[in-house]
Amino acid sequence: MNANAGNLEVLESALLADIAAAADEQAIEAVRIAALGKKGSVSELLKTLGAMTAEERQVQGPAINGLKNRVTEALAARKAELKNAAVAARLVAETLDVTLPVRQSPAERGRIHPISQVIDEIAAIFGDMGFAIAEGPDIETDHYNFTALNFPVGHPAREMHDTFFLQAAEGNEAKLLRTHTSPVQIRTMEAQKPPIRIVIPGKTYRMDSDATHTPMFHQLEGLVIDRTANVANMRWVLEEFCKAFFEVPSLKMRFRPSFFPFTEPSLEVDIQCDRSRPGEVRFGEGNDWMEILGCGMVHPNVLRAGGLDPDEYQGFAWGMGIDRIAMLKYGMPDLRAFFDADVRWLSHYGFRPLDMPTLFGGLST
């Protein structure tokens, strides 16, 4: 093949036009292969130089190599343009609006349920007083739930508990869902010798449902057994707990006679509060009173049921609703919302997962 100047100009014009028309890096690569590849049009021209005479090679050699160099430069320039255009398009497509708030991590977005938070607060307070946490089964026998706690068979107080009874297999003892956490008192007395200082947070079950009652609720039980425990000790423990839990420097308490089968004497406890502001209750101030818990000295029959001699040991116990004191402290109007699993409610009333309650750092900060 004899390449003349006219043919080279036509080929160069065609290649430069193809280079200019390439729309992306893939297209420009196709043009490069068609021109400079192993069988490309410019490469084929270079192969003809070997068959030419010396005179022809002196003329055609510089012309063909010049064509190759110009095409190579045009390819490089167009490739750079396309690369810059692709980067610019990507920057536009992937633009970040830095004015939007950063999404929170799961640890920051998650919330601890108020019941879990209050149980942690209770554990922190009583743990500082030297109490241990005790637990027991949710499904109990009639003996532990009633009889051992001085509820004789047929006693009217059994009817106050609206119990969920479970159907028993033939020949087996009927069981029930515990109506209070008090059975753990008996189990603890059977398992260890005094002195005993325990608190028992846990789930309990009764057939009741309204704004302040649910079929399943949480209760806190406390028990102290030793040789010298008395009402004065009980008053101090309860007063210190209420001050720490409601985070007030001082408050007044009022004890009223009451009746519980498992304590004698039995007392209801009211604490000082102020209800003068609509929808708000403040503890440790004002002239109003609010019932907060029940307590009393452990009944001798309960001590005997736990395997202890009431002539040698005595003690006191108390109980309160964890859900109720959570409502009072954090201003929640309806107990049923605790169990609705509404993420919006939990986001409003829940607690940050890494903010653990401590007495020195603040229980609810």
Describe this structure in words.
The chain is rod-shaped. The chain has about 375 residues and is an alpha+beta fold. The strands form two sheets. Strands 1, 5, 6, 7, 8, 9, 10 and 11 form an eight-stranded mixed beta sheet that branches. Strands 2-4-3 form a three-stranded antiparallel beta sheet. It has two domains: about 90 residues; about 240 residues, 2-Layer Sandwich (BirA Bifunctional Protein, domain 2), CATH 3.30.930. The model has no long low-confidence stretch (mean pLDDT about 85). Keywords: Aminoacyl-tRNA synthetase, ATP-binding, Cytoplasm, Ligase, Magnesium, Metal-binding, Nucleotide-binding, Protein biosynthesis. It is an enzyme of class 6 (ligase). It is found in: Cytoplasm.
Provide key terms for this protein:
Phe-tRNA_ligase_II_N, Phenylalanine--tRNA ligase alpha subunit, metal-binding, 40% helix, 365 residues, 2 domains, single chain, three-stranded antiparallel sheet, BirA Bifunctional Protein, domain 2, rod-shaped, eight-stranded mixed sheet, alpha+beta
Distance between the termini: 91 Å
Give the rounded overall mean pLDDT. 85
CATH architecture of the largest domain: 2-Layer Sandwich
Count of discrete domains: 2
Specify the helix fraction band. Answer: 40-55%
The number of E-state strands comes to 11
Number of continuous helical runs: 12
What fraction strand?
A: 15-25%
* CATH level-4 homologous superfamily of the largest domain: Bira Bifunctional Protein, Domain 2
Which radius of gyration do the C-alpha atoms yield?
43 Å
Give me the oligomer status.
single chain
For the largest beta-sheet, the strand count, sense and barrel status come to: 8 strands, mixed
